[in-house]
Amino acid sequence: MKFDKVDGFQLGQGNFNVNNTSNTPPSKRQKISDSDRSHHKPGSITLQLKPLSLRSPPKSHESNCYRSITNFIGCLIDNNLPNHLKVETLQSNVRDLMRIYLKSSDLYGFILREVRRGLAALKPQSFNQDEHSGLFIRSISEIYSKSESWMKVIRYVFADLDRCYASKTSGVQPFQVQIEHLFREIILNDSHIYKWLFIDLNNCLVKVRQSLSFLTNIHHPEGSIEKAINTSNQLNELVQVHNLYQLAKCLDWELPAIANVYLQTMDDVIEKVCGVAVDQSLKVNDVVNKIYLHNSFEDAVSWRIDEHFSWDNRNHMARKYLSLTFDGIVKAGVEELIPYSWNNSSNRSTIEYNEIPSITTPKISLTRELNEIIRHTPYKEDFDLLLLERINIVIKMFVSNEENDQYLILALIGTLRELNKFYSHVFDIPITSSYSQYKESFSKGLQFRANKPAEMIAKFLDSLLKDKRGQGENMEKVVDGAVELFRIVKDKDMFSAFYTLSLARRLVKNTSASNDNERDLISRITKVAGSDFTQNWEEMMKDIEISDEISNKFRDAHQTKLQRATIVQAARWPFKGQHLSLRVKDMADKDASEVAKQAHISQGDVTIPQWMTEELVEFTQYYQGVHANRCLTWNHSLAEVSLNGEFESNGGERSEKEIIMPLPASLILMVFNDKDEGEKVSYDELAQSTGLPEGELKRMLQSLSFGKVKLLQRFKKKDSWAGKEIKSSDSFAVVKVLEHPRKRFRLPIITAEVDVEESKETTAEVESARVFALQASAVRVLKARKKINVNELIHEVIADIEKRLTLKNEMGLAKQIKQTIEGLIEKDYAERIEGQRNMLQYVA
Prior knowledge:
Blueprint: E1 5-6, E2 9-10, E3 50-51, H1 59-77, H2 87-99, H3 104-122, H4 135-157, H5 159-166, H6 175-188, H7 191-208, H8 224-233, H9 236-251, H10 255-279, H11 284-305, H12 313-330, H13 334-337, H14 364-374, H15 380-399, H16 408-427, H17 431-446, H18 452-466, H19 473-488, H20 492-509, H21 515-529, H22 531-557, E4 579-581, H23 592-602, H24 610-626, E5 633-635, E6 640-648, E7 654-662, H25 663-670, E8 681-682, H26 683-690, H27 694-706, E9 712-715, E10 731-734, E11 744-746, H28 752-785, E12 787-789, H29 790-801, H30 810-826, E13 830-833, E14 836-842
Protein name: Cullin-4B
Region (Disordered): 14-44
GO molecular function, one term: ubiquitin protein ligase binding
């Protein structure tokens, strides 16, 4: 027999078992143990009856679960939990309510309502501003601490609810997020509490910064900032600011607003400090010092508030301090950063590169500190312009004083050295690139005396290249400094004129310390100005090499007193002065002495001895034999003579001296060869015997009578003034005693007046050449364009000529070009188009 159902029970294998239907909840019921089951007997039928449905648990269990949980939550919120709490029972009740009775949503809502009730009960209802600062923040921190403790307990007891319901149900947040949200909503975002919190925060920060009051004093004792930091760190107010910030950081609540209050109270301190600084006209150094002290204080305080937060103290302080002091202190105090210190210079004549005095000694450390403050502010560009303008003013102040001309180039080289160092250290850029930072300002300062710096650079290089000590690393640096000055000046045409003249003299008179140095300098200038600029100098060097070769061959082939003859191409060399023309071609068959007699008669003012002329004629004939169809013109103003004489020392000993001197000086001394020892020769006789012009004769007599090496003694009339000026009534005699440590030396010649006159002539020639250059440029443009507007012509001429001419400013050059255009119209190179006054057309 087989049964499918028996009285509502299913049939199956196993023992018959009916569970007890007591009040025990299903989760607590015991499973049927194996021991209660009847063992299956072979061949027998076992009936197992299972109920098709079970009755629902009694309502009393659900109520008990709710009761225990509500009592627990109430005690938790009211801070009245019993000492002995069975957490396992609570967790079991939570699981039953969730799984059996499906009350997760109700339970979740109930817990949040209780938390809301608890927070509302704790919410402060008033704020007493007369209380100590920080008390209100502390009360809010305590409320948050309580809510945190609630959250920890709730998350532990209701872990299943948090994990299985909140995390898996859309729109439902975990307890931590919800409780933090309730705290923000009920406590922090309450309009009154929000206002009271920030009032208390402001009071706390004001209290913390009270120790900075020493910054309003002109001078503050050493260790003031350390004392201020220690005082503030010990204040309860700083602790409360820290607590509020950590609370806000944890809840992501109003962090920018807290930072604004922090910065606003900082600004209040800065305004007080800057107000006192401006009123008392403090120096830049004092303001920078106060900024750095204040910044160290803010770093310490902000670190105590939150060590992981990147506070923008430095940049904010820099902007605020500079907005209040830039115009009143920084602008006015730029002289403190780059002072004009030339009056305090010493050892002005040294050529030791590192000891060369500078016009200014910039304050590198102070400027670097100020630049660190300014570089992230809107004042950075203005500050850079201030420095550049100050450099311009300092250079202009020095160059404008003609008394400084003696030290002009050395001082400028020293200034370049200091400014290179200044820009390299302050702005952290290589020295090679720092040059471009201030070259325009430096150049504008030099242009205050247009042409003069370029002239002085050429003369300075001339003195360096004559100095036989000019070797080694030190001299290399000095030459580099001079070349850098050449790079800066705009009057390169003026430099070229003076350098060409000095180079020619060095090469002809053989006063250059080394031809290698000459070539090296030409190479450096070529890198700056291009090969076209130095091409003529290269050709001059080649002329000297060829001339030395011819001169050496002549001396080897002839017995001659002519030590060196310099043969150059006249078109390349800037020589002026008196010349002696010997036309050997017309007298090729005559004897040298006969030619010399005729040359002596035809040479004009200067009377050259017969034997000297014969030497020149003999060399001229030799040269004509090597280079036919060439005419030599001798420039005796550049000639030098080695004069041998016997002189007595102070000790009575007689010794021979070889003195190298200009030809005019030797002509004067050779007049005394025919005179008795100690015999006087009048000025008129010297003038007649030498044929020298009056100015040249007086200059040579001054050099021989009053120079560093005195070879003549001047005698004046009794009634005449006893100055160094040479009069026609004076007479002269050769000195008996000559003291000089060297056997062979060069006679120093007074050249001041000659140099001044020569400078004027050379400058006038360059200025004239500039006018012609402007005219040529304008004609080139007119010829190419045929018709052109006047303003367009001016701009094109400026673009064409600005690399070669002095440009004080574009307006000044435009005026020069307009004058040039009018001159071209007068010369019929151009004409105005009728009806269009601003239009020009080229006239072929």
